[in-house]
Design brief:
- By secondary structure, the chain is of the alpha+beta class.
- The chain is about 10% helix and about 15% strand.
């Protein structure tokens, strides 16, 4: 589960000093699915603000199964964010081959 959750929180943004109840709801939902917040290999802001008086933020998050080989291995590419106000993030998720027998 990944995306722009638009929730700033001290749990994942070290430059933000508040904790909101929306965070608890999101973490409860993720936990109910067996997912945990996965940290970026190179932590940093995921959104850069146009106004220099506003602080950049971390609002794009990735939740994975904790035993997933990609857990904690996704990368931010802040050098190419200029195409948008969001930093591209990349994650490679391995999908194992499974044979499914279908009887028609």
């Amino acid at each position: 589960m990944t995306g722009d959750f638009n929730i700033r929180n001290s749990d994942w943004d070290l430059n933000f000093y508040h904790h909101f109840s929306h965070t608890d709801n999101l973490l409860t939902l993720a936990n109910s699915l067996g997912l945990e917040l996965s940290s970026f290999s190179n932590p940093g802001p995921t959104r850069f603000m146009d106004n220099p008086h506003d602080s950049n933020s971390v609002i794009d998050l990735v939740f994975l199964f904790p035993n997933n080989i990609s857990f904690g291995c996704h990368i931010l590419y802040p050098n190419i964010y200029k195409l948008s106000d969001y930093v591209p993030l990349f994650i490679e998720i391995g999908i194992r081959e499974i044979n499914i027998n279908i009887n028609i």
